[in-house]
Give the backbone structure.
Amino acid sequence: MGLIPHCKQLNMQVESVCETHLVLSIEGDERFLGNKEEGLIHGGVLSVLMDSACGSAAVIASPEPEVCPTVDLRMDHYRAAKVGKKIYCRAEVTHLARQIVFTEGLIWQDEDKPICKGTGTFMRLGAERTPKGFAEHIFGAAQEKKA
Amino acid sequence: MNESDLQPGKLGKHLAAKEVNLWLALIPYAQLIGVEAEDRGENLIFTLQPKSTNIGNPLLPALHGGVVAAYLETAAILNVMAYTQGKRIPKVIDFSIDYLRSARTEITYARCELGRLGKRVVNVSVTAWQGNREAEPIALARAHLIWPES
């Protein structure tokens, strides 16, 4: 996440990653307000979190890391996210096709109160159209961190 | 306001960019990514400033898809507020975006069109483009918002 400038600006964190899904989070920072008077987080911040989580799930699901640009993203806002509380997004791949990855995500602050449901579709550019060093770029740095 | 007021050409007057931009003080995230309204003739358009912090793919480089979504959602919100004289920040029910081209780190423009479904819900279509290539949009978005007067 530290390699993606906007995710870095939001201080987006990886909570957990497993084969089937991953969880990202951001703090309910005042910089992210969309309605300062009512203390509500901007829906667009949730779109950034959803796009990042679903996109990461898509990249991880591919057998070899390849660039997966977003084809489309849909957000259903069940209730507003509030300032001052951590925001989580769980994303999973629902179907991995030859050229396309289908994903779904859910955002919450309190586990029993879903805030937003998202659906993202991503294109698989394939190894030949993925810039050389992409895997090293995204995973190499992570390994450096570990070491 | 009744339903017929929202038919094309009967929307009534919208506020100018100068007044619309005053509400940005209530929307910190819109300021963080660099959204502003601008008058273009009779029409209200929106701009997203190119900031290195808005980048999602440093290899191209391209703007983060989520930032483009946040920008177009903000445009839809401000556009509705421009017609309702900014009484309240409208709630977004749902938001959907199609990415047509990757967005370079240059000024991105957006234009909104209001439609209406019922008395409480407004439908907004947003088109985003860069340079003078309005005919080749980088993204198209659609949102439903609660009309703030109801």
Strands of chain A lie at 13-17, 21-26, 33-35, 40-41, 70-77, 87-96, 100-110, 113-123.
